[in-house]
Task: inverse folding
């Protein structure tokens, strides 16, 4: 229980920020899921477009402080790696 005005304010801020962060994280997860679906469909063009959207969303969440900038960078790197692997396997198969 908050005992002072400042701690009551912090409780309000924490609740507000938690709601904002949950919304941002949920939107990010949706975009990442779309990318992974495109990769599973073996569609490099769709995956490339979804990578662009997911990268933008990762940068936005990192800029807002919901996700650490190095965590966002690491995720972008891994997504790009998956896309490159998909493209490489597509050229070998086709």
Result:
């Amino acid at each position: 229980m908050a005992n002072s005005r400042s701690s009551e304010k912090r409780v309000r801020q924490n609740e507000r920020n938690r709601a904002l962060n949950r919304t941002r994280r949920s939107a990010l997860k949706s975009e990442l899921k779309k990318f992974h679906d495109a990769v599973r469909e073996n569609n490099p063009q769709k995956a490339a477009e979804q990578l662009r959207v997911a990268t933008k969303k990762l940068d936005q969440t990192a800029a807002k402080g919901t996700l650490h900038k190095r965590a966002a960078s690491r995720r972008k790197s891994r997504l790009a790696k998956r896309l490159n692997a998909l493209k490489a396997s597509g050229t070998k198969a086709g």
User: Anything to note?
Assistant: The domain at 5-93 is CATH 1.20.58.110 (Methane Monooxygenase Hydroxylase; Chain G, domain 1). Residues 21 and 65 are 9 Å apart (CA to CA).
